[in-house]
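To whoever is on call:

I kicked off a structure prediction for a single chain this morning and the downstream step that reads the tokens threw a length-mismatch warning. I double-checked the sequence; it's 277 residues and nothing unusual in it as far as I can see. Pasting both halves so you can look.
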Amino acid sequence: MYRKMAVFILVWAVMSILSCASLRQELIRKPTVSFELMELRDMSLFEATAVFKFSVSNPNPMGLSIRNIAYHLNISDKKFIKGISDKDLRVRAAGLGKLELPITISYSDLSESSESIADKVEYDIFGSVEVGPFSIPYRARGTLNLPKSPVLSLKAIRVNEISTTYAAVMFDLELENNNLFAFAVKRLEYSIYIAGKEFASGSGENISVPLRTKLKLEMPMKVNFFKNGQSLAAILDESSGVYEISGTMAFDDAKEGKRKISFRRAGSVPIIKADHP
């Protein structure tokens, strides 16, 4: 008798809970979640924080809690990252709430998930947001801009002094930053080839490069013809030459640590003599 009564009470309790939950969802109108935009913050050459912004519309006469934003982020149609953001927010009664989902993207992880990296990649983010008693799905697609690698080029070779044994030259270099953020090169190492022959090598340290700029660098050097060959003297006698510059740039990134970027650039360079500016 007591056993039957206990079973009855348990069934009644479960039915009451389910009934209350169903009634609660019937009395509360379902909010809507809309994707607004994605913006990049804290950008560097190695990572950025993608902030996905949503608006939550609450049509009810009472405030509702926003919790547990589940997300799956795909890059270039490949799985990249998933997780749950345990934000605890509220959207006011009959109001519109703003929701931000920040996801840090390391470009080294991105290169591992994609066969090649372009200036832009496609993203696809989807998941659900818990608003009150509801779990509301969302999905958004768009384009993610990636940083552009620094470009080092040789703009001119100025011959300030020349004799039968050596030449004093100045290399006019240009370090171009096409990004909307500044960076600092801890150490720059490069080699210069003219007409296919190694002409010079050099280095620089602690170079600050502002955003969206072409930074001029002057690198003086003495070229010893006995050590490097008389063919270099013949090259300097020309008015221009075909050059190649290659090397590495080392960085101390606050989050990524010590990193290096390799570079290579080729083109034509004017050779300017001191008596013929």
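Update from on-call: the warning came from a stale cache, not from the record. Cleared it. Sanity check on the structure: Residues 2-27 form the longest helix (26 residues).
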